[in-house]
Amino acid sequence: MARRSKLELFSAQMGCTVRICREAAEIILEAPRIHRTRPSSFPLRAERALSTLVPTLVATDGSALYGAAKIVGDGRNMDYVTSGQVLQQAIPGLAPANGNRGEEDPAHWVMWTSAAQDNPGQARFLDYTERELHWAVRRRAPYDSFLVDPAGLVGPTSDPGLVRRLTRFDASIGFAIGRLAERRRIVLVSDSFALAEALHLSYRLRSRAGLFPEERNVLAFFGRALDPRWQKALREWKDSIAFVDLDLHENELFGRKELPRADDLDY
Predict the structure, then answer these.
(1) Which helix (H) or strand (E) holds 84?
(2) Core-most of 59, 105, 143, 162, by most CB within 10 Å?
């Protein structure tokens, strides 16, 4: 047999390579796709594809959340990284914060909080929140953060519980909700009942605009620390407001472990 030329050998090798690549591509295309599922510990709506992101504003009253976490966690610090993960797992289509503030960004995570310039620990935490969590932080001086002047309401006081209860950002958060009502789903992290109607009406505006009408707005907070008036609102407006109870995620948020049973202890 005459020796085959180099050109013929090269052509044969190329033909074989093309055939193998074509067969591999056909196998990949015909292979069944693997779909990720959510953790079974979260009783959530599983019918929405995880790839579908819903334009969302996550509006957090940082002072309200901090005060409630101190009570619920028995003085232990809450893990704010985990808090964001809990919301993402509990709310379908919620994108993580990435620091962008553009109109096309799928999620805006914003926190309003009271911040003192002479508190270095607080300043470090808020810098961490902006740098690592990528939340936008709206800082206000403590005196400018009160719903009403405490001195005019109850006279001079240093009661930390009362001061925390009067520190809320309802006006600023309500304004943000109104501005974005027709364009974004609202996730509210606050205990303030003053924002209930805004959360309800903003869903109605978005629903009429035809933007993800099947996705309700969301209230997320510790149930035991919630203003009791929310209970009636959540029942009456259940078609527009969903509730994520952070009480159900204490072990994750505060790093707690279940106590051992008596039978498991060595005496």
Answers:
(1) helix 80-90
(2) 59
